[in-house]
Amino acid sequence: MAQTIRKAVFPAAGLGTRFLPATKASPKEMLPLVDKPLIQYSIEEAVSAGCDSILIITGRDKSAIENHFDISFELEQLLKEKGKNDLFEQVRAISDIAKISYTRQKQALGLGHAIYQAKDFAGGDPFAALLADDIVDAEKPALTQMIDVFERYDAPVIATMQVEGEAISRFGVIDADEVEPGVFKIKDMIEKPAFEDAPSDLAIIGRYIFTPDIFDAIERTAPGAGGEIQITDAMRLLLKERPFYAVKLDGVRHDAGDKLGFLIATVQYALKRDDLGDAFRAYLRSLEL
Question: How many domains is the chain built from?
Fold first, then answer.
């Protein structure tokens, strides 16, 4: 029986250049999707999947993330004094969500390097890694779907989705055999192949379950373009030594790290809201598009 996943890692040290100038002084992970920052959606997903220990890997100018998940005494006091108990409970719940710790990635040297910062946190345990700007809207949390597969196969698991046409060249892509509906045993993975070289239409997206041997693989991974250590290269090294699986997630993935993807996610999440959906839908119908 595989050890279950109780730890989750959130790399959040990137500069967010795709959202400049909004991210010049504010972390990309704190961009609001309706009224909640991107990283909170992913942390809530991890907590709902059974993770109770969270590590956020930050960089310079990311203190807003730490402040968001800390107790805000003055704000809470003000809300209580004004009798806004619902808002008070909402704000307090954020600071009580899980045991959250932080470490800094002093240089942005790639996702593999960022995940390596979690070595002490993980210890000898398997752990999840989630990218906050990949938002997965799913009835059964995306990470729960992956943990189910991890517990069946006792091996690292990555999330995948089908991508049509030329867009596949923007992703890592897997070459894999389907071993049960929606579950694949990986033979190889290629980072951002040309469309004609892609081994499948299955792209790697920002959800991973790793075993502790990933850290040794990262240590053995040579830096690639821009001196960055790519997690795909480390996974390929490890793939030679142990099985890897992929799950085609049941749900809708939004690339909220892209301006258009962020706008689409905002519309979709607003339409789902009981307090906003009807009025927003009526507004959208009134537009002469």
Answer: 1
Q: Could you tell me if residue 259 is inside a domain?
A: yes
Q: What is the CATH number of the domain that holds 46?
A: 3.90.550.10
Chain segment 70-84, per-residue pLDDT in tens: 988 899 999 989 999
Question: Do the domain assignments include residue 1?
Answer: no
Q: How many CB atoms lie within 10 A of CB 35?
A: 11
Q: What dihedral angle (degrees, nearest 10) is formed by the CA atoms of 35, 203, 183, 118?
A: -60
Tell me the angle at which helices 259-272 and 277-286 cross, rounded to the nearest 10 degrees: 120
The phi and psi torsions of 193 (rounded to 5 degrees) equal: -75, 155
164-172, Cβ contacts within 8 angstroms, sequence gap of 24 or more: 164/201, 165/195, 166/195, 168/193, 168/195, 168/198, 168/201, 168/203, 169/193, 169/194, 169/195, 169/198, 171/203, 171/204, 171/205, 172/203, 172/204, 172/232
Query: Tens digit of pLDDT for each residue in 147-204?
Result: 999 999 999 999 999 888 888 888 889 999 999 999 999 999 988 888 888 899 899 9
190's enclosing H/E stretch is strand 183-191
Strand-pair category, 245-248 with 157-162: parallel
Contact 234/218 with Cβ under 8 angstroms? yes
